[in-house]
Amino acid sequence: MKKFYITTPLYYVNDVPHIGHAYTTIAADVVARWRRLNGQPVFFLTGTDEHGSKISDAAAKAGETPQAFVNRVAGEFKKLWVTLNISNDDFIQTTQERHKKVVQAVFEKLKASDDIYKGTYEGWYCVPDETYFSESEIVAGNCPVCGRPLQKLREESYFFRLSKYEQPLLAHYAAHPEFLSPTLRANEIMNFVKSGLKDLSATRTRVSWGIQVPSDPSHVVYVWVDALLNYITAAGYGASAPGMRFDEVWPADIHLVGKEIFRFHTVIWPAMLMALGLPLPRRVFAHGWWTVDGAKMSKSVGNVVDPAKMCAEYGVDAFRYFLLREVPFGADGDFSEKSLLGRYNSELANNLGNLLQRTCTLLVKNFDGSLPPASQSRMLGDASRLLARIEKAYDGLAFGEVLEEIIGLMVKTNQYIDEMAPWKLGPDDKDKLAVILGECAGVLRALAVLLWPFMPTKTEEMWRRLGEAGSVEKDGSLWLNSLKAGRIPDVASEQKVQKGDPLFMRKSGKSQ
Ligand code: MSP
């Protein structure tokens, strides 16, 4: 069975990891976990983009060799992914030997097929962005991306025949509407391609920190051409990953990217793949950008959000949950700690936490922690329909909608408890109590499974508290399958329900 292949962009190592990087990676992780929960084999890739003069400049500034510098910062990304519970299967660094080999082989292959040729490039160059811009793109002599002054440069360069792929790209977009996702971003790309593609300068002579062209070592490969190829290196292209069969992984199912790098992934990348005769990724999905308290995040303003700090304050699960709950995926959004705190208290502590607490406390009090069967649940009666809606939302990467569905179930179940008021029932009402509490315990276990991709730690805690001996990670698939069929699985374990501490301790507000 082909693996479900999902990727994040490779993060530049000239910056420490921040909320923007965390966002793309957490979103990819949620999809990867959901697919695994559904029994699908997954290959989930992330990594770091380590070549180019921006990186070697940053290394020089830090007083380190480029390689030592990139390894150190890549280590910080890896550490953050552990903190954030990211379940990636591989972490690629573009300075690794396996990747260099692929880039060099691809370059020579495309040169041999005349998809790459030698010429001279003259244009407006942005040094910090390492990008050339055409006359029509520049804004009053400045870079259209960062606004800094541009320099007119001329250099010998190898070119990739991007222009040749104008029509094939348009034909591909038309035949595969999903390729450009979400659809609101599709027009911009199609218009860009329709307006005419120029060949792409694919090497640099003024940059030394990069992968050399084997047949002409004064040239290094342009950092974007280098970086994009990571997606096939890690998949085992040209035997770059022993033990992995390329066609078991490739093509990628989703490249998850931020909106500012959508064009690289939907124009240059598919054209390169066409030139190589490889199938194209099924979908490139662009998400929006975060501002912080209404302002653009920047080091100089000092408002860069450190994901590790947020996890220390609110816990990793609440942070993961919040990022995907707060803003529809694909749109821009604003991060505010006040809003995080609000959702933490209302949705996680009051809603989910309370439901678990009330149910477990009453089960311990009335049944000594044994779980009554919950085979005919009213709350979960339409579980298969709920799951169909959740699946559809996942297909559109509409994480907010997935969570809306789950929260709806939480609210409904809390209302049910309020109406039934089981705490008023006495020892003579044991049968009634068993039905109510069995119902709630069933929903809670379903909630643990459904929320697991978002909150892999707290849901395991829920699972244990509910008397399950295994883990959601191991047993969740079984559960999901039963729910899809409209059944609640029997309780497998003899373990007892535990009262425990609140799942999410309520937090008092910040002063602002
Ligand atoms: N190295 C390239 C990608 C090469 S992929 C072959 C790159 N790296 S990056 O580190 O600058 O950015 C990577 C990701 O972080 C992008 O998906 C980008 O959208 C995301 N974010 C960076 N800042 C962000 C926000 N403020 N908000 C949301 N995401 C943003 O580009």
Structure description:
The structure is a single chain. With 512 residues, the protein is an alpha/beta fold. The chain has a domain at 337-484: Orthogonal Bundle (Isoleucyl-tRNA Synthetase, Domain 1). It is built from 18 helices and 15 strands. It has helices at residues 19-37, 53-61, 66-83, 97-112, 166-175, 186-194, 223-228, 230-233, 246-249, 262-276, 307-314, 316-326, 337-367, 383-395, 399-420, 430-451, 458-465, 472-484, and strands spanning 4-12, 42-49, 90-93, 116-126, 131-133, 151-160, 180-181, 200-201, 203-204, 220-221, 254-258, 284-287, 290-292, 295-296, 333-335. The strands form four sheets. It has a six-stranded parallel β-sheet, sandwiched between helices. Strands 5-4-6-8 form a four-stranded antiparallel β-sheet, covered by helices on one side. β13 and β14 (295-296) form a beta hairpin. α16 (430-451) runs antiparallel to α17 (458-465) and α16 packs across α18 (472-484). It is elongated, with a radius of gyration of 26 Å. The termini are far apart. The model has no long low-confidence stretch (mean pLDDT 93). The chain binds 5'-O-[(L-methionyl)-sulphamoyl]adenosine. 5'-O-[(L-methionyl)-sulphamoyl]adenosine binds at residues 9-12, 20-21, 23-24, 49, 227-228, 230, 257-258, 260-261, 289-290, 297.
